[in-house]
Amino acid sequence: MNFVQFVATKTFLKHLGVAVLIFIILSWAVLASLGVYTKHGESANVPDFNGLTMDQIAKLESSKDFELVVIDSVYDASKRKGTVISQEPQPRSHVKAHRKIYLTLVASLPEQVSMPDLVDLSLRQATAILQTYGLKLGSISQVADIANNAVLRQLYHGRTIIKGKFLTKGSTIDLVVGSGLGGDKVQIPFLIGKTRQEAIMELRRFSLNVGTETYDQNTDSIDARVYEQEPHYTIGRYLNLGNPVNLIFRSSLDFDFDSYIRSYKVDTLRPDSLSTENNY
After folding, report:
1. In this structure, is residue 227 part of a structural domain?
2. What is the CATH number of the domain that holds 100?
3. Are residues 148 and 194 located together in one domain of the fold?
4. Could you tell me which of 258, 254, 245, 259 has the C-alpha nearest to residue 224?
5. Mean pLDDT over residues 113-125, rounded?
């Protein structure tokens, strides 16, 4: 009997039919068990847990349909400590029941960072590292030292702070840098028309400090722009590193800064505007 004759026999066909039937039954059983395991067809809307503590969430009947997992905490002074600040999936999402909901809570304490060692670095390097650590550059002062423009001391609230000391993220660090043998000088930056934040960033870029800040009457800090700076901006005028620049602000809502800036720059180019005393 050859193969073709064999597969045509009743015995073979009977066994083949039984095998197909068993395969169909097993496939149905597997699919049915998967449906039970994955809760196919069962779904729920994700509740809004934002602003609630874990104790409050535990008392909610709707929370029992999900597995809650706290994955992170962030500090936000405007939010109540220990409450949910974000969740994933988002509220009102349509998901399968009993899936995991990942929560981020408001930390009880501000985020802490370790103070880096800035001593012997250049002022530019120190500024970049402070930004990386989430710290702010405060005042820059100079002392006579051969290490020109290098950080000699790092201060927090007027006291030396050592490497590794923990600080609240966003703290301000003051730096003492060397002035070199002759003392470095920088061109006075042009700050007219800039916002307070822009002016401060520009002064920091030139290694200068913010002096007094004066606001014109009825000037809101949001709309304020630099109306005048002291010492005045003049081409060829220089300041020592760390010197202060005083800022006078005026509202941009009731003053034409564009015309004022054009006129201001023209005046600074006139020969009689150049100061004979370029250094402060």
Report:
1. yes
2. 3.30.10.20
3. no
4. 254
5. 94
